Structure formats: structure tokens, C-alpha cells
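Re: the request from the purification team.
They wanted to know what the chain is likely to look like in 3D before they choose a buffer screen. I agreed to run a prediction and write the result into the notebook, where they can find it.
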Amino acid sequence: DSFLAGGHQIKKIRVHGRKTPDWALRNTGVRAVIETAFPKWRVNVTQRQRAARWAQVIYLFYRVGMSRPQTAREMKVKSEMVKNILNRMRRVARGIRASNAGKRAS
């Protein structure tokens, strides 16, 4: 019987390694990235909502360790939106505008 003769193999569960940036593990780092991206979050409702969305992505993706699709399901958004937010956060953390339109003014 080919099934018993090696047709199936037991494999290890895949573990995807993820490098979490240092800033995402520190509250001060998270605050710095969010305040850089949304400087008027205290007075502008739209910026406040977007900053809250970023904070939720940071918490679920980096701190809880959810995958991108899991994070999207939890937030009730599409996985593509989470991907875009993560890319924008990485740009801001590197000192580049979230829109990728060049370096931020210091």
C-alpha cells in the first residue's frame, strides 16, 4: 500500500520568524512614531482616528504576535490595509514621510 510505504510524511509546523523593531516594543518609541506621523492628533479628529488605528496595529501585530490576516480580521479591515499601515510605520520610523515623498524635515 503506497500510503503506508511513505506516501505521507510528518512535517514540522512552520514558524515564521518576525523581527520586531525596537521602537515597537517601547511605549516611548511607539509614541514617537505616532506623533511624528500625526502631529496634530490632539486637535484633528481624522489624525486621532488614524493614530488610534496605528496603535492598534502595533499592539496586535508586534506585541501580541498576530499575523497580518489575523490582525486585519480582529480590526475588521482588509489585510491590504494592515500591510499598508505597517509599511507606512516603517517609513516613519526610518525618518521618511509615510507617503514615501522624501525625508521628513527635522
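For the purification team: Helices lie at 3-7, 22-25, 27-37, 45-64, 68-75, 79-93.
Please add any questions underneath this entry.
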